[in-house]
Every structure is written in structure tokens, then in C-alpha cells.
Design a protein that fits this description.
The protein is of the alpha/beta class. It folds into 2 domains: 3-58 and 339-348, 5,6-Dimethylbenzimidazole Phosphoribosyltransferase, Chain: A, domain 1 (Orthogonal Bundle); 64-332, Nicotinate-nucleotide-dimethylbenzimidazole phosphoribosyltransferase (CobT), large domain (Rossmann fold, 3-Layer(aba) Sandwich), CATH 3.40.50. Helices cover 52% and strands 9% of the residues. It has a 6-stranded parallel sheet, sandwiched between helices. The structure holds alpha-ribazole-5'-phosphate and nicotinic acid (NIO). Residues 185, 207-208, 267-270, 295, 297, 300, 318-320 line the site of nicotinic acid.
């Protein structure tokens, strides 16, 4: 099957959320021993999980994967980040060794970290943690021209879909997503500016922590690259022009997981920019996602607004790697557990008054 056939087939199998399961979850929330609505966003989360999985009450997700997509960016040569490109590889080795923030946070919740080399410049070895699916050795500099070809964009999307299928086949009930790629907040800002229609100056942020001069330069690059996108360009064209290989992998993962009815937890500005890409292919796919957190990057708030998702935690994080997605998993588990395990007014013999 060609990548474009895989994409078409995946899009065709994504459905809207299961309305019957959502209705049953909403009705059950109303008869649990608490004032109606008092568990706030946990209640909404439980209803969404029912809609995604098509089951009420949805299972408490025990087996959780954290899929971290890694790639390099040609735009680093244009001076948009103070960090050398080699840090992408060094951090992937850190993920393999279990020493990064995402590893520590994943151990706290018993989640398995899977790293996917979508297109790092350096060659890394494959093992139980790192899967090598290199589409090309880093993108071209998006400040100068298209980041990749359409064929490469399609191949990388297909790779993300396959990763979702592999994780679903391995029995993962929830997939948290993350990224690693020095320079990737520039590509993310381009995607968010394009898909939200907001100006580059509003969307472009400081990434790893750049000074005012570098921010001005980065913003100009974003504005110029977005202006190059042709009128009426489809999502594959947009990805090829200004995206990254990890963005493609993450968007593919979102589409593949939605087709399999496995909920995906989004991370920060990079993952959310990839979710906008997935939304351009299939608005229904994003309904199968939960927003883990809100990062301090200005573009992230704009992206969440366009995705129509409310972040579960807001802790001034600006890391990526999937850190904010992993931190939200205990809340998602709690939302499902409440719906499944709380007593009803009838069970507990409590007078429900007029509230229920
Ligand atoms: C040591 C280190 C660990 C990281 N983990 C995630 N990122 C984050 O920072 C990068 C994006 O920021 P920019 O666009 O400014 O380069 C991405 O790799 C992202 O995941 C890191 C960055 C560094 C330096
Ligand atoms: O929002 C994020 O995920 C983020 C912000 C800055 C740098 N890396 C990631």
C-alpha cells in the first residue's frame, strides 16, 4: 500500500464520537453521589473517553505509551535557536538511557516511552526504546524553501499512522505524544500561524529561551515562510512547505489512533501544531484527543483555541518531549475511575433531592 493509500484508508475509517456512549456517560454522571457537575472537567473528560472508546463507562487506561517523535530541522542554520542541532541526538540517547524529564515523569505513572527517529541528521541504533523510521536526514531550511517534498511528507504521515497501529496492536489504551527536535518551535509557529490565520508576531515564541534579537529574526522567518504557502494549499502541501518530520509523524499518529478509537493526549506547542495538521485532514480525529496541558508558548494557546480543546494542567511548562501530556494522565485515569467506581444515589441510599 502506498503512503497516500494508507492515509486515504485511515481517514475513511475515522468516525465521529459515539453519541450513545456519551449520552450514557452524561446520564450516569448525573446519578453519582455528588452535586451535578461538581467534578467539572473530570466529568467532561469521562464523557469524551466514552465517546472515543464507544464504551460506558470507559475502562481506566492502565497501559499507556508515550510516543516521542524526533527529527532535525534545516532552519537551525538560519539562527532560530541557541542550541546546536546535535542536542536532538544527545537527547534521544538520554531518552534511551532513561534520564530525560519525560522518562522520569513516565516512570511515575508506569508508562512506556517509545522514541521514533523520523528524520534525525545522525544515525542512531534501534532497540526496545528507539524505532528508526528515518524519512530523510533532517528537513531543508524552511527559511529558504520547502522543508521537504510532498512524497516525503506523505511517507512521514504514513509512518505515524503505522506507529499508532503498532501501539494499538500492542494493547496500549492511551497514547501520550511528545517531540524532540532542536529548532522545531519555528516550524510549529509556521503551522499554527497558517492554520489559525493569526500573525506570526502573535504566535512565535521563545522556544528554549531566546533573546529579543533572535525572537525578532525568528518571527520574520515564520512570517516569510507562511506567506509562501499557496492559496488553497492542502494539508500535505502545508506540511511539505513549513513542517517538520516529527510534526508529520505526530499528525499521522493522531489520525491512526482515531481510526482505532485509542485516545491521544496532546503535549505542548509542537504536538498541538501537528494536531492542527491532523484537524485539516479530519476534524473528527481531534475529537479523539485530550489536551494534556497549556505551555507558555503563545502559539499554544492559539492552537488549543482552534482545536477546541481545554488543557488539563497549566504549570508554566515549556519543555516538550511529552512532559505535559504525561502529567495529565493521572487526571484522565481519575476521570474514568470516577465514572466507573462512584456509587449512585440509589446505591448509597442518599436522597438525590431535585439536583439529580
Ligand atoms: C536540552 C534540551 C532538552 C529538550 N527537551 C525538549 N526540548 C524542546 O526544545 C526544542 C525546541 O526548541 P527550539 O525551537 O527553541 O530549539 C525541542 O527539541 C523541544 O522538544 C529540549 C531542548 C533542549 C535544549
Ligand atoms: O510548548 C512546548 O512544548 C515547548 C516549548 C518550548 C520548547 N519546547 C517545547
Amino acid at each position: 500500500m502506498t503512503p497516500s493509500q494508507l492515509l486515504e484508508q485511515t481517514l475513511a475509517s475515522i468516525t465521529s464520537l459515539d453519541a450513545d456512549a456519551m449520552r450514557a456517560a452524561t446520564e450516569r454522571q448525573a446519578i453519582l453521589t455528588k452535586p451535578a457537575g461538581s467534578l467539572g472537567v473530570l466529568e467532561e473528560t469521562s464523557v469524551r473517553l466514552a465517546g472515543i472508546t464507544g464504551v460506558c463507562p470507559p475502562a481506566v487506561p492502565q497501559k499507556v505509551a508515550v510516543a516521542v517523535f524526533a527529527a532535525d530541522h534545516g532552519v537551525v542554520a538560519s539562527g532560530v535557536t541557541p542550541w546546536p542541532q546535535s542536542v536532538t541526538t544527545s537527547m534521544v540517547e538520554n531518552f534511551r538511557a532513561g534520564g530525560a524529564a519525560v522518562n522520569v515523569l513516565s516512570r511515575q505513572i508506569g508508562a512506556d516511552v517509545a522514541v521514533i527517529d523520523m528524520g534525525m541528521v545522525d544515525d542512531v541504533k534501534e532497540d526496545a526504546v528507539v524505532r528508526v523510521r528515518k524519512v530523510r536526514a533532517g528537513t531543508a531550511d524552511l527559511a529558504v524553501g520547502a522543508a521537504m517534498t510532498r512524497d516525503e511528507a506523505l511517507e512521514a504521515l504514513g509512518t505515524g499512522i503505522r506507529i499508532a497501529e503498532e501501539l494499538a496492536d500492542a494493547g496500549y489504551e492511551l497514547i501520550a505524544t511528545g517531540d524532540m527536535g532542536i529548532g522545531n518551535t519555528t516550524a510549529s509557529a509556521c503551522l499554527i500561524a497558517h492554520f489559525t490565520g493569526r500573525p506570526a508576531a502573535e504566535i512565535t515564541g521563545r522556544g528554549t529561551g531566546i533573546d529579543d534579537a533572535m525572537l525578532t529574526h525568528k518571527t520574520a522567518i515564520v512570517a516569510q515562510a507562511v506567506a509562501r504557502i499557496a492559496e488553497g494549499a492542502g494539508p500535505v502541501d502545508v506540511l511539505a512547505e513549513v513542517g517538520g518530520l516529527e510534526h508529520a509523524g505526530i499528525a499521522g499518529l493522531i489520525l491512526g489512533a482515531a481510526a482505532r478509537r485509542v485516545p491521544v493526549v496532546l503535549d505542548g506547542v509542537i504536538v498541538s501544531s501537528a494536531a492542527l495538521l491532523a484537524q485539516a485532514f479530519s476534524p473528527d480525529a481531534v475529537d479523539h484527543c485530550l489536551a494534556g496541558h497549556r505551555s507558555v508558548e503563545p502559539g499554544h494557546t492559539a492552537a488549543l483555541g482552534a482545536l477546541g480543546l481545554r488543557p488539563l494542567v497549566d504549570l508554566d511548562l515549556r519543555l516538550g518531549e511529552g512532559s505535559g501530556a504525561v502529567l495529565a494522565v493521572p487526571l484522565i485515569r481519575s476521570a474514568a475511575a470516577v465514572l466507573a467506581e462512584m456509587a449512585t444515589f440509589a446505591d448509597a441510599g442518599i436522597d438525590a433531592g431535585t439536583d439529580a
